[in-house]
């Protein structure tokens, strides 16, 4: 649910923030991709449920909010369907982009961990 600001609610007729500028953000650092052997090593030493979460993140490439939104019914055969996102306590029945709901292949190793979980 979107909240209306004071101008949208008709409480003021001018924007008091008109002379404000957004500061320039910091440059993002490069990301690191783990090698398959590193992923397997992590998964082997982690307890549940961390093992399944790390496996799902590593083998699907889903965003953190998409991982948090997964439910058992989102797995269909050898595919995972992203149907919702969870950010903090906000559950959205939509995804970040139009392409996000496309099915994600479910590798056999991850299927095993998800079924056990």
Structure description:
The protein has 117 residues and is an alpha+beta fold. The chain is built from 4 helices and 5 strands. Strand 3 and strand 4 form a beta hairpin. The two termini are 33 Å apart.
For the report, how would you describe the main beta sheet? 3 strands, antiparallel
Number of helices: 4
- What's the rounded overall pLDDT mean? 84
Beta content comes to: 5-15%
Q: Helix-strand pattern, N to C?
A: HHHEEEEEH
* Form type: elongated
What is the structural class? Answer: alpha+beta
Radius of gyration: 20 Å
Helix % is 25-40%
Strand order of the largest sheet: 1-2-5
Task: Report the count of strand segments.
Answer: 5
**Gap from first CA to last CA:** 33 Å
What's the SSE blueprint?
Elements: H1 36-45, H2 50-60, H3 64-69, E1 75-76, E2 79-80, E3 85-87, E4 90-92, E5 104-105, H4 108-116
Antiparallel strand pairs: 1-2, 2-5, 3-4
Helix pairs in contact: 1-2
Summarize the structure.
31% of the residues lie in helices and 10% in strands.
């Amino acid at each position: 649910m979107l909240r209306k600001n004071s101008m949208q609610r008709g409480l003021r007729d001018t924007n008091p923030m008109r002379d404000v500028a957004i500061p320039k953000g910091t440059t993002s650092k490069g990301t690191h991709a783990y090698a398959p052997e590193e992923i397997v090593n992590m998964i082997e030493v982690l307890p549940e449920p961390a093992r399944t979460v790390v496996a799902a993140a590593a083998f699907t490439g889903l965003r953190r909010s998409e991982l948090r939104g997964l439910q058992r019914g989102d797995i269909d055969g050898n595919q995972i369907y992203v149907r919702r996102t969870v950010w903090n306590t906000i559950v959205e029945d939509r995804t970040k982009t139009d392409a996000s709901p496309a099915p994600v292949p479910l590798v056999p190793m991850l299927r095993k961990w998800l079924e056990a979980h």
